[in-house]
């Protein structure tokens, strides 16, 4: 059986879960409290990060390397387009969310509001929360600008770029940190992606200590 | 003419410079003081980061997305192998250096020793310098462990993984932060990569305020 070692509110884990589900690759999800740095876990991934995928007796780490591998070994349905220019744009946007958005928004909001509590590292730093709340507005506006010209973030087809973005935003939505009223076009995009069968497992996530808010799994949010 | 907006001591810029040079794609290098957030620069890359490549009237950002694009459009010589398993391993290692090594070592050492001075943001934080100096040992040992089993970091051929690693290590070597005596096998690997024609431009870098140390460009260091 394939296994994904993950944490429910890890956006990198969610990106891989979405790719696997879209490609109908079944996996058993194993929750990993990666900050406890369990010896077995470090043996699977010396980087000590989630997600880690165990598939066909191979153990793989790094969400982007895993998604590229899945794309090459399970090409249908495609999450990367065929032409080099659009593939570039998908990868640029995946990096935009996993690097820039993560640093400016996710680690600021989730890091302070969720991970401090889960890991027991004290109270949220309100300067970080404020900076994250400010930065997310700019990012939502950037998405609106892209979606004004394209059906999906990187072009006319749904790709890994949409999954990367939805992975971060769905984590933040679990703690009610996304203002969906800021842009109708971004809200419509999220409604489309939220209603895909691949999203179901993510909408069913429950994190102890953080009750799921009503709008989170509601397709009509 | 192709142009690369870069900063000489940016490891992400160096990874792209190495790929371009190995593939014999000529570019004009334009030094970008990205922290000054010049309006023209932000128009080229709203993420505000280097490197940015202007090629055939396209403007591209994110070093990994750029390197994948170069691989697809200029496949010879190949910096990604053919089989999916080794391609995965290359990408995992590129992420290892650009994510983990960067966070644990490069930003700690370069960030404190070089960028504070260049950007005028005060004195180095000695706790960070200490943490970076400690972490690099572990990373050199990890490289030695890999190279004990393989000719190059990801397998028997030189790949983007070697360029990602050499990009970070060459920046650190410019400020004499790499102890090459720690592992003979890592030193041999660096000597091999340093002697490639693609490395020449990097060995010629001069950063004002930081005179190039004697061993830096010496192939017999
Ligand atoms: N580049 C990695 C990043 C994964 C990552 O940072 N995961 C976080 C959880 S969201 C983690 O495990 N952090 C632990 C650490 O950095 O030590 C990927 O894409 O998989
Ligand atoms: N994911 C980007 C990261 C590039 C990056 O972080 N570059 C640094 C210089 S080494 C930078 O421009 N930082 C400015 C910033 O983060 O605002 C890439 O691979 O190109």
From TrEMBL, chains A, B:
Molecular function (Gene Ontology), one example: maleylpyruvate isomerase activity
The keyword Cytoplasm belongs to this UniProt entry's keyword annotation = no
Keyword presence, Transcription: no
- Any idea where the GST N-terminal domain is? 1-78
Key words of the record: Isomerase, Pyruvate
Q: Which PROSITE patterns match?
A: GST_CTER (PS50405), GST_NTER (PS50404)
GST C-terminal domain span: 83-215
What residues form the membrane-spanning segments?
A: none
Q: What is this protein called?
A: Maleylpyruvate isomerase
């Amino acid at each position: 059986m394939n296994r994904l070692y993950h944490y429910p509110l890890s956006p990198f884990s969610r990106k891989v879960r979405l790719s696997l589900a879209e490609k109908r690759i079944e996996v058993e999800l194993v929750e990993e409290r990666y900050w406890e740095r369990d010896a077995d876990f470090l043996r699977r991934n010396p980087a000590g990060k989630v997600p880690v995928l165990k598939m066909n007796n191979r153990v793989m780490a790094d969400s982007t390397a895993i998604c590229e591998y899945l794309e090459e070994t399970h090409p249908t349905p495609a999450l990367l387009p065929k032409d080099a220019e659009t593939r570039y744009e998908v990868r640029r946007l995946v990096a935009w969310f996993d690097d820039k958005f993560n640093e400016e928004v996710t680690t600021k909001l989730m890091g302070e509001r969720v991970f401090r509590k889960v890991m027991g590292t004290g109270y949220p730093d309100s300067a970080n929360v404020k900076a994250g709340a400010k930065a997310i507005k700019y990012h939502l506006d950037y998405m609106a600008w892209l979606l004004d010209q394209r059906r999906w973030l990187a072009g006319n087809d749904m790709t890994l770029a949409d999954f990367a973005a939805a992975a971060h935003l769905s984590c933040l939505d679990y703690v009610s940190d996304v203002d969906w009223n800021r842009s109708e076009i971004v809200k419509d995009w999220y409604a489309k992606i939220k209603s895909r069968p691949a999203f179901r497992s993510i909408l069913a996530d429950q994190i102890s200590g953080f009750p799921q808010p009503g709008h989170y799994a509601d397709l009509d949010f």
